[in-house]
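Fig. S4 source data, part A: sequence.
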Amino acid sequence: MICKASEYISKNENLLSDKNVYEKLSKNRSIKSIEKQANKIIRSSLASSTLRTDKVNRLISSCSKAAKFHSFIKDHKSRNEQGFPLRPIASVRDTPI
């Protein structure tokens, strides 16, 4: 399905503005600080013998990136008065989560 870029961007911005689903990170809370916090939790599970060393080493992250957001048009759904429906996709690959 083809749509206007401005309409696609507008619909995605509308999806991202839902405060019940998405949270905008403040500038002083960087990806690096989230990565450090996540790694600290993972290392503490090693200390408490919850996870084995080899598992912990695979879970520790470095050089993390922010999640990427995009969406797919649900072309199997019919258009309605609000236009075309979107399926939001948040890619968390290489994130500290």
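Fig. S4 source data, part B ends here. The first helix runs from residue 5 to 16.
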